[in-house]
Amino acid sequence: MMVRMKFIKTGPVKFIGHLDIMRFFQKAVRRAGLDVEYSQGFNPHQVMSFASPLGVGLTSEGEYLDVSFNSLPDKQVLLQKLNDAMNEFIQVTDMVVLNEGAKNAMASVAAADYLVSVKDGYEFFGIEEFQKKFTAFMAQENITILKKSKKSEKETDIRPFIYFFAFTDIEFLGEDSAKKSLAESYDNGVKVYLKLSSGSVDNLKPELVMEAFCEYAGIPYNEFAFQMHRFELYGEAKDRNYIPLSEVGYEA
Amino acid sequence: MNKLVLSDEILMTVDKPARYIGNETNMVVKDTKAVDIRFCMCFPDVYEIGMSHLGIQILYDMFNRREDTYCERVYSPWPDLDKIMREKNIPLFALESQAPIKDFDFLGITLQYEMCYTNVLQVLDLSGIPLLAKDRTEEDPFVLGGGPCAYNPEPLADFFDFFYIGEGETVYNQLLDIYKEHKRQGGSRKEYLEQIAEIEGIYVPSFYDVTYKEDGTIKSFTKNNSHAKDKIKKQVEMKLENTYYPKKPLVPYIKATQDRVVLEIQRGCIRGCRFCQAGMVYRPVRERSMDFLKEYAIEMLRATGHEEISLSSLSSSDFSGLQELVYFLIEECNRQKVNISLPSLRIDAFALDVMNKVQDVRKSSLTFAPEAGTQRLRDVINKGLTEENILSGAMEAFNGGWNRVKLYFMLGLPTETEEDIEGIAVLSDKIAREYYTIPKDQRNGKVGITASTSFFVPKPFTPFQWSRMDTTEEYLNKQHFLRAKFNEQLNKKSIKYNWHEAELSVLEGVFARGDRRTAKALLAAYKEGCLFDSWTEFFVNEKWVKAFADTAIDINFYTSRDREEDEILPWDFIDAGISKAFLLREYKNAREEKVTPNCKMACSHCGAMEFGGGICYLPRNEEVSAL
């Protein structure tokens, strides 16, 4: 049966690339002694797929992977076994068993929540000025950027793919769900929360938004100035009704 | 968690930041304030290479079993980070605590190959530790070296406080116990060195003086401190069957060169190939026990989650329990969906059966190391592999569906003639011809043979330690000659010829048998910017040539000169367990093309019997195997 796991990626592990995270999970599953399914053939490998590769340098508390099990222990036992085989920076926080025929994690992704913080030492605006400028930036009808691909450059309007933004967690996540985040925090306090289109169709990275913002604000874009933190990945229900990837299927 | 030394910006700028962040699976975490001794273990090459080294995994585990000691790790920063650290004055740090190396009590550097010596200087330099041992103060860590290159530590003598000669399992605990007491009492640096100079296997170079004759050879090697020993005795772990071995090896985030569980089945080698230093200095052959190996294999697979296990030894085929162990592992691995990799297996019915069971249909290639092209030269080097062995082994494998063969040879072996060189091409061709004797409809496509040559580098404590080594020019001529001979072969289209760089081998030759004076050239080369010399993309021979010229050190004196049998060799003060008389006898046998039987067939009285165990005390095997 296919199990969807939600996991965090924090601390120094943010420097580990996606392929190595996959290898890490494969080894962790072996260390935990879980009864997972292996593919057939001469080089059997674990049947495992990730929702959305997280760029190197980003932290997250909303990553997902699907793993196929032959037999499943109790949820708490499974979480405990797996987390004991990993470290404090990369932990599974939740899991659900998927219904037969459910779309896999990667195909399901439609949107993602991010927190973008300015790192200390890279400040360019105070909190107030940043919020004013960013609000004005978002008030534009179009935000046109030059999207470079291997073959061509083409102009794209990214405004439709920025679904929502806010400057505080309460405003962004709502009073109930606002909780202590695992995101790294910085003294300068300049930050913005973004809900962006994600997935295979219109994938918008937060880096691209900040690059466009810097251009709009007339300041040079420094790729090292921002810490991006992913909160959650969503699948789309109907009419832009986003549901977290963990809220599909049923509880184990 | 300890805050990372390198900023996000630096880590996002350099290649593979995972090399510098620690926190790998099975990393040991201790409170640095709660321990008495802080030991930093260094492999002076890039992280992925260093993390693959078994010796460090063993010592890391052994040291950290001590409650009073915290052993951490450091590797050479890659040139991209090296540059940034110099520009920004960032001191080199250990992966675990991220603390500066300079704060440690010990910096232990493993010396696995000569061409990492500039990296040794890099590690000291970036740590802010004076390069020369004599310039160090009470504030600096003790810098010690070990590993195979420590069998001739002299080119590095100026840079190290002391060397540990031999296997690490024996006297490290003694070194640490004495240090703890020394630290408590507040003794001086010299006092500690004097205390440990009395331990077997410990060499403190500053306690010895070397003088030279007019012709450049050593006149005398004498101690200048009464605590120093006359001879430094190689350390050997004689309880290998069940001694220290890590049950939870470190597992890096990024793929290391050895991305697998490594199970060391035995130490030493019965073969006695005359060019092979490992085969001489790791004597006597000692096996680990079957119960130990089975237990540790399962335990390590469980603790690492690795998808592969490999057996480590100089010659796995000679391990007495190989069949039992391999069949046990095949069963266990099939159940756990783990691969087994078996290096250096002699091709026989058992090997083919095993290969059929563990390898997939694509059939990986078959490897032979004849080392020399003719039987005459193979007799000179005591490589007991005959042409018939190779051809029949290859044929068995061909019949089993294999069609790719890798062959390893050396150029420049003592007494080598043009016929021997040509023999490399001829033997490669014969293997191809053998393949084509199979009827066409039964063949598995074309045969592919890859023949590689490296250049012979004479090493200390081998019968060829007196031998002349070819010059770069001679090497290149031989290589061209051989390339032409390959082109004359019938099956030249089925044979691919690869060769190594000659300049690097010559430098390796200098430091392998160099004396203390070569340190000047090494230091000069480092100052010229030489680093990561074993990496083709960073090796700049011109800088080395300049360094030798500037320091007036003659490369040819160390390489292309036959040494007299009574010459004092720089490493003569080490007792490696094999007697000089034996090495001389073997040197003579080599020139007379006389083969010496292996340790299972008969004892050749090399001297290793004095260690009181291992193969020396086992009944001789009556069934002498053909290979």
UniProtKB/TrEMBL annotation, chain A:
Residues 3-206 form the DUF2344 domain. It comes from the Bacteria. This is Radical SAM-linked protein. The lineage of its organism: Bacteria, Bacillati, Bacillota, Clostridia, Lachnospirales.
TrEMBL record, chain B:
It comes from the Bacteria. Gene3D superfamilies: tm_1862 like domain. Pfam families: Radical_SAM (PF04055), Radical_SAM_N2 (PF19864). GO terms for molecular function: catalytic activity; iron-sulfur cluster binding. Residues 255-498 form the Radical SAM core domain. This is Radical SAM family uncharacterized protein. It comes from Anaerocolumna xylanovorans DSM 12503.
